[in-house]
Design goal:
binds pyridoxal-5'-phosphate; 410 residues; 42% helix; Aspartate Aminotransferase, domain 1; three-stranded antiparallel sheet; globular; seven-stranded mixed sheet; 14% strand; alpha/beta
Protein backbone atom coordinates (compact mmCIF):
# COMPACT_ATOMS: atom_id res chain seq x y z
CA UNK A 1 0.00 0.00 0.00
CA UNK A 2 1.12 3.52 -0.68
CA UNK A 3 0.27 6.55 1.45
CA UNK A 4 -0.91 10.00 0.37
CA UNK A 5 1.79 12.58 -0.16
CA UNK A 6 1.22 15.55 2.17
CA UNK A 7 3.45 18.32 0.79
CA UNK A 8 1.28 21.41 0.15
CA UNK A 9 2.27 23.36 -2.96
CA UNK A 10 -0.53 25.94 -2.67
CA UNK A 11 0.73 27.37 0.61
CA UNK A 12 2.07 30.95 0.31
CA UNK A 13 4.64 32.55 2.59
CA UNK A 14 3.68 35.70 4.53
CA UNK A 15 6.97 37.31 3.52
CA UNK A 16 6.38 38.99 0.17
CA UNK A 17 9.05 39.86 -2.44
CA UNK A 18 9.42 42.70 -4.94
CA UNK A 19 7.51 42.26 -8.17
CA UNK A 20 10.47 40.99 -10.26
CA UNK A 21 10.92 37.99 -7.97
CA UNK A 22 7.20 37.38 -7.40
CA UNK A 23 6.84 37.21 -11.21
CA UNK A 24 9.48 34.52 -11.47
CA UNK A 25 7.85 32.46 -8.71
CA UNK A 26 4.44 32.92 -10.34
CA UNK A 27 5.83 31.63 -13.65
CA UNK A 28 6.98 28.48 -11.86
CA UNK A 29 3.50 28.14 -10.35
CA UNK A 30 1.86 28.55 -13.76
CA UNK A 31 4.22 26.33 -15.71
CA UNK A 32 5.07 23.62 -13.23
CA UNK A 33 2.54 23.31 -10.41
CA UNK A 34 -0.88 24.31 -11.73
CA UNK A 35 -0.97 22.26 -14.95
CA UNK A 36 -0.88 19.08 -12.87
CA UNK A 37 -3.90 17.30 -11.40
CA UNK A 38 -2.32 17.23 -7.93
CA UNK A 39 -1.06 20.84 -8.08
CA UNK A 40 2.54 19.71 -7.72
CA UNK A 41 5.42 19.54 -10.16
CA UNK A 42 5.32 16.48 -12.38
CA UNK A 43 8.40 15.01 -10.70
CA UNK A 44 6.44 14.75 -7.41
CA UNK A 45 3.72 12.14 -7.45
CA UNK A 46 0.56 12.00 -5.34
CA UNK A 47 1.62 9.01 -3.31
CA UNK A 48 4.55 8.36 -0.99
CA UNK A 49 6.11 4.91 -1.26
CA UNK A 50 5.65 2.56 1.65
CA UNK A 51 7.98 -0.25 2.71
CA UNK A 52 6.66 -2.73 0.15
CA UNK A 53 7.01 -0.38 -2.82
CA UNK A 54 9.45 -1.19 -5.62
CA UNK A 55 11.87 1.72 -5.83
CA UNK A 56 13.63 2.25 -9.13
CA UNK A 57 14.90 5.76 -8.43
CA UNK A 58 18.27 5.37 -6.77
CA UNK A 59 21.61 5.64 -8.57
CA UNK A 60 23.14 3.21 -6.07
CA UNK A 61 23.50 0.76 -8.97
CA UNK A 62 25.61 -1.76 -7.05
CA UNK A 63 23.41 -1.61 -3.95
CA UNK A 64 26.25 -0.74 -1.60
CA UNK A 65 25.07 2.44 0.14
CA UNK A 66 24.57 0.59 3.43
CA UNK A 67 27.45 -1.84 3.03
CA UNK A 68 28.84 -2.56 6.56
CA UNK A 69 32.48 -2.24 5.47
CA UNK A 70 31.82 1.27 4.12
CA UNK A 71 29.77 2.30 7.16
CA UNK A 72 32.50 1.07 9.50
CA UNK A 73 35.18 2.96 7.59
CA UNK A 74 33.17 6.16 7.99
CA UNK A 75 32.35 5.53 11.65
CA UNK A 76 35.91 4.74 12.57
CA UNK A 77 37.05 8.12 11.30
CA UNK A 78 34.08 9.96 12.79
CA UNK A 79 34.87 8.52 16.20
CA UNK A 80 38.48 9.70 16.05
CA UNK A 81 38.49 13.32 17.14
CA UNK A 82 39.98 16.29 15.38
CA UNK A 83 41.66 17.94 12.45
CA UNK A 84 38.77 18.12 10.03
CA UNK A 85 39.68 20.04 6.87
CA UNK A 86 36.97 22.64 7.33
CA UNK A 87 38.57 24.71 4.63
CA UNK A 88 39.30 24.83 0.94
CA UNK A 89 41.28 21.92 -0.54
CA UNK A 90 43.78 24.43 -1.88
CA UNK A 91 45.51 24.28 1.53
CA UNK A 92 45.87 20.47 1.61
CA UNK A 93 49.26 18.84 1.13
CA UNK A 94 50.40 15.74 -0.68
CA UNK A 95 50.18 13.44 2.35
CA UNK A 96 46.45 14.08 2.94
CA UNK A 97 43.82 11.33 2.75
CA UNK A 98 42.39 13.23 -0.21
CA UNK A 99 45.70 12.80 -2.03
CA UNK A 100 45.82 9.04 -1.35
CA UNK A 101 42.26 8.56 -2.59
CA UNK A 102 43.11 10.52 -5.73
CA UNK A 103 46.10 8.27 -6.36
CA UNK A 104 43.92 5.18 -5.86
CA UNK A 105 41.30 6.44 -8.33
CA UNK A 106 43.99 7.22 -10.91
CA UNK A 107 45.44 3.73 -10.61
CA UNK A 108 41.94 2.21 -10.78
CA UNK A 109 41.15 3.92 -14.09
CA UNK A 110 44.63 3.69 -15.66
CA UNK A 111 45.54 7.39 -15.40
CA UNK A 112 48.35 9.30 -13.70
CA UNK A 113 46.26 11.50 -11.41
CA UNK A 114 42.83 12.50 -10.30
CA UNK A 115 41.25 15.41 -8.47
CA UNK A 116 38.58 14.81 -5.84
CA UNK A 117 35.79 17.41 -6.04
CA UNK A 118 32.74 18.15 -3.87
CA UNK A 119 30.30 16.83 -6.50
CA UNK A 120 30.06 15.82 -10.14
CA UNK A 121 28.57 19.24 -10.80
CA UNK A 122 31.58 20.99 -9.24
CA UNK A 123 33.96 18.74 -11.21
CA UNK A 124 32.38 19.56 -14.57
CA UNK A 125 31.93 23.27 -13.95
CA UNK A 126 35.44 23.63 -12.49
CA UNK A 127 37.07 21.71 -15.31
CA UNK A 128 35.38 23.74 -18.03
CA UNK A 129 36.20 27.01 -16.30
CA UNK A 130 39.88 25.99 -16.34
CA UNK A 131 40.25 24.51 -19.83
CA UNK A 132 38.00 26.77 -21.95
CA UNK A 133 37.59 30.47 -22.58
CA UNK A 134 35.94 32.82 -25.08
CA UNK A 135 38.29 31.74 -27.85
CA UNK A 136 37.59 27.97 -27.52
CA UNK A 137 35.00 26.21 -29.69
CA UNK A 138 33.34 23.52 -27.56
CA UNK A 139 31.65 20.57 -29.31
CA UNK A 140 29.05 19.05 -27.06
CA UNK A 141 26.60 16.20 -27.62
CA UNK A 142 23.09 17.62 -27.40
CA UNK A 143 22.18 15.30 -24.47
CA UNK A 144 25.35 15.88 -22.42
CA UNK A 145 24.67 16.50 -18.74
CA UNK A 146 23.60 20.02 -17.72
CA UNK A 147 26.68 20.48 -15.51
CA UNK A 148 28.93 20.42 -18.58
CA UNK A 149 26.62 22.84 -20.39
CA UNK A 150 26.81 25.14 -17.35
CA UNK A 151 30.59 24.81 -17.36
CA UNK A 152 30.68 25.94 -20.98
CA UNK A 153 28.48 28.91 -20.09
CA UNK A 154 30.72 29.91 -17.18
CA UNK A 155 33.86 29.62 -19.31
CA UNK A 156 32.42 32.01 -21.90
CA UNK A 157 33.24 29.54 -24.71
CA UNK A 158 30.98 29.05 -27.74
CA UNK A 159 29.09 25.75 -27.61
CA UNK A 160 28.45 23.86 -30.86
CA UNK A 161 25.97 21.07 -30.17
CA UNK A 162 26.33 17.93 -32.26
CA UNK A 163 23.42 15.57 -32.80
CA UNK A 164 23.13 12.92 -30.11
CA UNK A 165 25.67 10.09 -30.61
CA UNK A 166 26.45 11.34 -34.13
CA UNK A 167 30.22 11.41 -34.84
CA UNK A 168 29.62 12.43 -38.48
CA UNK A 169 27.88 15.61 -37.36
CA UNK A 170 30.67 16.21 -34.81
CA UNK A 171 33.29 16.01 -37.55
CA UNK A 172 31.37 18.42 -39.78
CA UNK A 173 31.23 20.99 -36.95
CA UNK A 174 34.94 20.65 -36.15
CA UNK A 175 35.81 21.14 -39.83
CA UNK A 176 33.70 24.30 -39.79
CA UNK A 177 34.84 25.86 -36.49
CA UNK A 178 38.29 24.41 -35.86
CA UNK A 179 40.25 22.78 -33.08
CA UNK A 180 38.56 22.86 -29.67
CA UNK A 181 37.12 20.70 -26.88
CA UNK A 182 34.84 17.69 -27.35
CA UNK A 183 32.41 16.95 -24.51
CA UNK A 184 30.03 14.04 -24.07
CA UNK A 185 28.70 11.47 -21.58
CA UNK A 186 29.74 7.83 -21.96
CA UNK A 187 26.31 6.64 -20.75
CA UNK A 188 23.36 9.01 -20.92
CA UNK A 189 21.42 9.65 -17.74
CA UNK A 190 18.07 10.23 -19.42
CA UNK A 191 17.59 7.26 -21.73
CA UNK A 192 20.52 4.99 -20.80
CA UNK A 193 22.12 4.75 -24.21
CA UNK A 194 25.88 4.51 -24.65
CA UNK A 195 28.07 6.86 -26.71
CA UNK A 196 30.06 5.58 -29.71
CA UNK A 197 33.21 6.33 -27.71
CA UNK A 198 35.76 4.88 -30.11
CA UNK A 199 34.45 6.87 -33.08
CA UNK A 200 34.07 10.16 -31.21
CA UNK A 201 37.52 9.93 -29.64
CA UNK A 202 39.10 9.02 -32.97
CA UNK A 203 37.65 12.20 -34.51
CA UNK A 204 38.59 14.35 -31.49
CA UNK A 205 42.19 13.14 -31.72
CA UNK A 206 42.39 13.43 -35.51
CA UNK A 207 41.60 17.14 -35.22
CA UNK A 208 43.85 17.57 -32.18
CA UNK A 209 40.97 18.48 -29.86
CA UNK A 210 40.86 18.08 -26.08
CA UNK A 211 38.40 15.38 -25.02
CA UNK A 212 36.23 15.20 -21.88
CA UNK A 213 34.09 12.14 -21.15
CA UNK A 214 31.60 12.20 -18.28
CA UNK A 215 31.57 8.64 -16.88
CA UNK A 216 29.17 9.30 -13.99
CA UNK A 217 26.93 6.36 -14.88
CA UNK A 218 29.60 3.96 -16.13
CA UNK A 219 32.34 4.22 -13.52
CA UNK A 220 31.86 1.33 -11.11
CA UNK A 221 29.38 -0.38 -13.40
CA UNK A 222 31.41 -1.08 -16.58
CA UNK A 223 34.95 -2.11 -17.43
CA UNK A 224 37.56 -4.21 -15.63
CA UNK A 225 36.50 -4.31 -11.94
CA UNK A 226 34.33 -1.26 -12.65
CA UNK A 227 37.06 1.00 -14.08
CA UNK A 228 34.61 2.45 -16.60
CA UNK A 229 33.95 2.44 -20.33
CA UNK A 230 37.03 4.42 -21.35
CA UNK A 231 39.23 1.81 -19.66
CA UNK A 232 37.24 -1.11 -21.02
CA UNK A 233 37.64 0.17 -24.60
CA UNK A 234 41.40 0.73 -24.18
CA UNK A 235 41.01 4.51 -24.57
CA UNK A 236 42.77 5.65 -21.39
CA UNK A 237 45.71 7.07 -23.32
CA UNK A 238 43.46 8.77 -25.85
CA UNK A 239 40.96 10.62 -23.62
CA UNK A 240 42.33 13.72 -21.86
CA UNK A 241 39.79 13.99 -19.05
CA UNK A 242 37.25 11.70 -17.44
CA UNK A 243 34.82 13.31 -15.03
CA UNK A 244 32.34 11.53 -12.79
CA UNK A 245 29.85 12.04 -10.04
CA UNK A 246 30.64 9.73 -7.12
CA UNK A 247 26.96 9.89 -6.17
CA UNK A 248 25.98 7.05 -8.52
CA UNK A 249 27.69 3.62 -8.26
CA UNK A 250 29.95 5.08 -5.53
CA UNK A 251 26.82 6.05 -3.58
CA UNK A 252 28.61 8.98 -1.91
CA UNK A 253 28.57 12.76 -2.18
CA UNK A 254 31.53 13.77 -4.35
CA UNK A 255 32.89 14.05 -7.87
CA UNK A 256 36.18 13.36 -9.59
CA UNK A 257 38.29 14.57 -12.50
CA UNK A 258 40.67 11.93 -13.83
CA UNK A 259 43.60 13.40 -15.73
CA UNK A 260 47.36 13.73 -16.22
CA UNK A 261 49.76 14.48 -13.38
CA UNK A 262 50.66 17.74 -15.02
CA UNK A 263 47.07 19.01 -15.14
CA UNK A 264 46.37 17.97 -11.53
CA UNK A 265 49.18 20.28 -10.45
CA UNK A 266 47.40 23.37 -11.83
CA UNK A 267 43.73 22.64 -11.12
CA UNK A 268 43.56 23.47 -7.37
CA UNK A 269 44.96 26.95 -8.05
CA UNK A 270 42.86 27.73 -11.12
CA UNK A 271 39.39 26.25 -10.57
CA UNK A 272 36.99 28.41 -8.58
CA UNK A 273 35.07 25.44 -7.07
CA UNK A 274 38.44 24.20 -5.73
CA UNK A 275 39.55 27.57 -4.38
CA UNK A 276 36.27 29.04 -3.14
CA UNK A 277 34.47 25.99 -1.75
CA UNK A 278 35.48 23.68 1.09
CA UNK A 279 37.02 20.25 0.82
CA UNK A 280 35.35 16.96 1.70
CA UNK A 281 35.60 15.81 5.32
CA UNK A 282 37.82 12.92 6.46
CA UNK A 283 34.96 10.48 7.08
CA UNK A 284 33.60 11.11 3.60
CA UNK A 285 36.96 10.31 2.05
CA UNK A 286 37.43 7.18 4.14
CA UNK A 287 33.93 6.09 3.03
CA UNK A 288 34.91 6.65 -0.59
CA UNK A 289 38.14 4.70 -0.19
CA UNK A 290 36.24 1.76 1.32
CA UNK A 291 33.67 2.04 -1.48
CA UNK A 292 36.43 1.83 -4.08
CA UNK A 293 37.69 -1.36 -2.43
CA UNK A 294 34.20 -2.89 -2.53
CA UNK A 295 33.63 -1.81 -6.13
CA UNK A 296 36.91 -3.32 -7.31
CA UNK A 297 36.37 -6.58 -5.48
CA UNK A 298 32.67 -7.32 -5.99
CA UNK A 299 32.43 -8.29 -9.65
CA UNK A 300 29.32 -10.29 -8.78
CA UNK A 301 27.40 -7.05 -8.20
CA UNK A 302 28.19 -5.83 -11.73
CA UNK A 303 27.23 -9.19 -13.20
CA UNK A 304 23.88 -9.11 -11.38
CA UNK A 305 23.32 -5.50 -12.37
CA UNK A 306 23.78 -6.20 -16.08
CA UNK A 307 21.72 -9.38 -15.88
CA UNK A 308 18.87 -7.47 -14.19
CA UNK A 309 19.09 -4.58 -16.63
CA UNK A 310 18.96 -6.84 -19.66
CA UNK A 311 16.01 -8.81 -18.29
CA UNK A 312 14.10 -5.59 -17.65
CA UNK A 313 14.93 -3.90 -20.98
CA UNK A 314 13.99 -6.99 -22.98
CA UNK A 315 10.79 -7.47 -20.96
CA UNK A 316 9.65 -3.93 -21.72
CA UNK A 317 10.58 -4.22 -25.39
CA UNK A 318 8.55 -7.43 -25.67
CA UNK A 319 5.56 -5.53 -24.28
CA UNK A 320 5.83 -2.99 -27.12
CA UNK A 321 7.55 -0.14 -25.24
CA UNK A 322 10.16 1.84 -27.17
CA UNK A 323 13.32 1.35 -25.12
CA UNK A 324 16.56 2.87 -26.43
CA UNK A 325 18.57 1.90 -23.33
CA UNK A 326 21.71 -0.24 -23.52
CA UNK A 327 22.36 -0.12 -19.77
CA UNK A 328 20.96 -0.06 -16.23
CA UNK A 329 19.11 3.20 -16.91
CA UNK A 330 15.87 2.21 -18.60
CA UNK A 331 13.36 4.87 -19.57
CA UNK A 332 9.82 4.86 -20.90
CA UNK A 333 9.09 7.96 -22.95
CA UNK A 334 5.51 9.10 -22.36
CA UNK A 335 6.33 12.17 -24.46
CA UNK A 336 3.72 14.79 -23.58
CA UNK A 337 3.81 15.75 -19.91
CA UNK A 338 0.14 14.79 -19.51
CA UNK A 339 0.95 11.27 -20.77
CA UNK A 340 3.93 10.89 -18.45
CA UNK A 341 1.68 12.05 -15.60
CA UNK A 342 -0.84 9.29 -16.41
CA UNK A 343 1.98 6.76 -16.54
CA UNK A 344 3.45 7.92 -13.22
CA UNK A 345 0.06 7.71 -11.48
CA UNK A 346 -0.70 4.27 -12.91
CA UNK A 347 2.65 2.96 -11.66
CA UNK A 348 2.46 4.59 -8.23
CA UNK A 349 -1.04 3.22 -7.64
CA UNK A 350 0.50 -0.23 -8.05
CA UNK A 351 3.51 0.49 -5.80
CA UNK A 352 6.13 1.13 -8.51
CA UNK A 353 8.24 4.29 -8.25
CA UNK A 354 10.56 5.63 -10.95
CA UNK A 355 11.79 9.18 -11.61
CA UNK A 356 10.03 11.58 -13.95
CA UNK A 357 12.35 13.50 -16.27
CA UNK A 358 10.94 16.55 -18.01
CA UNK A 359 12.15 19.92 -19.35
CA UNK A 360 14.85 21.15 -18.79
CA UNK A 361 16.23 17.59 -18.40
CA UNK A 362 14.51 16.50 -21.64
CA UNK A 363 12.97 18.35 -24.59
CA UNK A 364 9.46 19.58 -23.59
CA UNK A 365 7.56 16.97 -25.63
CA UNK A 366 9.81 14.05 -24.70
CA UNK A 367 9.25 13.70 -20.96
CA UNK A 368 9.87 10.25 -19.59
CA UNK A 369 9.80 7.90 -16.64
CA UNK A 370 13.29 6.72 -15.76
CA UNK A 371 13.86 3.43 -13.98
CA UNK A 372 17.27 2.88 -12.40
CA UNK A 373 17.90 -0.84 -12.10
CA UNK A 374 20.27 -2.05 -9.36
CA UNK A 375 22.00 -5.27 -8.43
CA UNK A 376 19.91 -5.84 -5.29
CA UNK A 377 16.68 -6.39 -7.19
CA UNK A 378 15.23 -9.87 -7.44
CA UNK A 379 13.92 -11.16 -10.79
CA UNK A 380 10.48 -11.51 -9.17
CA UNK A 381 10.45 -7.77 -8.36
CA UNK A 382 11.39 -6.86 -11.93
CA UNK A 383 8.77 -9.28 -13.20
CA UNK A 384 6.18 -7.56 -11.00
CA UNK A 385 7.07 -4.20 -12.61
CA UNK A 386 6.87 -5.80 -16.07
CA UNK A 387 3.44 -7.24 -15.21
CA UNK A 388 2.30 -3.78 -14.11
CA UNK A 389 3.64 -2.27 -17.35
CA UNK A 390 1.70 -4.91 -19.28
CA UNK A 391 -1.56 -4.28 -17.40
CA UNK A 392 -1.52 -0.49 -17.79
CA UNK A 393 -0.81 -0.21 -21.52
CA UNK A 394 -4.42 0.68 -22.48
CA UNK A 395 -5.06 2.83 -19.39
CA UNK A 396 -2.06 5.06 -20.20
CA UNK A 397 -2.67 5.15 -23.95
CA UNK A 398 0.76 3.66 -24.63
CA UNK A 399 -0.12 2.36 -28.11
CA UNK A 400 -0.78 5.93 -29.28
CA UNK A 401 2.36 7.55 -27.90
CA UNK A 402 4.72 9.11 -30.42
CA UNK A 403 7.60 7.01 -29.03
CA UNK A 404 5.59 3.80 -29.65
CA UNK A 405 4.78 4.89 -33.20
CA UNK A 406 8.47 5.67 -33.81
CA UNK A 407 9.34 2.11 -32.77
CA UNK A 408 6.69 0.64 -35.07
CA UNK A 409 7.99 2.70 -37.99
CA UNK A 410 11.58 1.42 -37.57
C1 LIG B 1 26.09 12.56 -16.21
C2 LIG B 1 26.13 13.34 -14.93
N1 LIG B 1 27.13 14.19 -14.70
C3 LIG B 1 27.20 14.94 -13.58
C4 LIG B 1 26.22 14.85 -12.60
C5 LIG B 1 26.29 15.71 -11.38
O1 LIG B 1 26.70 14.92 -10.30
P1 LIG B 1 26.45 15.29 -8.77
O2 LIG B 1 25.09 14.85 -8.42
O3 LIG B 1 27.52 14.54 -8.04
O4 LIG B 1 26.64 16.78 -8.65
C6 LIG B 1 25.16 13.96 -12.79
C7 LIG B 1 24.09 13.86 -11.77
O5 LIG B 1 22.94 14.00 -12.02
C8 LIG B 1 25.10 13.20 -13.98
O6 LIG B 1 24.08 12.35 -14.22
Amino acid sequence: MTVKNFQDFTEKSKLGYPEFLEKKLQACDDELFKPRKNGKPLVIGSLTPDLGAIMLQSNDYLNISSHPFIREAQLEVLQKAGNEPVMSAVFLHEGSDKYFFEQAMAEFTGYESSILCQSGWAANVGLMQVIADQSTPVYIDFFTHMSLWEGVKISGASPYAFRHNDPVHLERLIKEHGQGIVLFDSLYSTNGDIAPLIDIIEIANRYDCVSVVDESHSIGTYGPHGAGLVASLGLSEKVHFITASLAKAFAGRAGIIICSKNFAKYYPYMAFPAIFSSALLHYEISGLQATLDVIKKDDFRREKLHENAEYFREGLRNLGYNISSQSQIVSIEGGLESDTELLRDALEKRGVFGSVFMAPATPKTRSLMRFSVHSGLEKSELQYVLDVCETIREEIGMWNWKSTRRKKAE
